[in-house]
Amino acid sequence: MKKITLFFFLCISLLLYCCKPKEDKKEEGFFPVLSFLKSQVAHIDTSLYQITKLTSRDSTWDTSYIKREEFHSYANDFLTLPDLTDKTISAKYEESKFFDASLNRAIITYTPKDKSEEIQREEVTIEPDAGNGDKVKNIIVDKLVSTKDSSITKRMLWTVNESFQVTSIIQKPGHEDSTKTLKITWQ
Description:
single chain, 9-stranded antiparallel beta sheet, 5 helices, 9 strands, 23% helix
């Protein structure tokens, strides 16, 4: 009888231990911008989209078509972004979340704690949709690249399933600023 009572007590104790509510220690990480962009590029690699390149240098535009194989080289500025989901990199950035009711968009912004970081801002805009799931609409990145004789500010915009654009502002001491824009579209 003692064995049955002991067995019963152990079963009840185990059941209570297993059913006890656990503390929710789920840590939310940064939005996986780099992975998302890579999935967009993979989709374009397997598509039959016609890809158009528009370039501008100081307000003169040129349009041409590019081959699918060339797409990666044009998207390289996006594909070489640091992965902010990496703990060592995310420690250098702060995340802020905001909902803009006038745009009906949730906006997640990442800014560096130290302003000398190459990525000055990463912003993800998301359109909430309870019925079909939220949809990422845009990814905006401001990047600062300094060399010994110039600095380049890159303003980058990825419009999901549609296009991307990179505007480079080149500043050299003693020279006027030069602006170059590359826009790639597909549909």
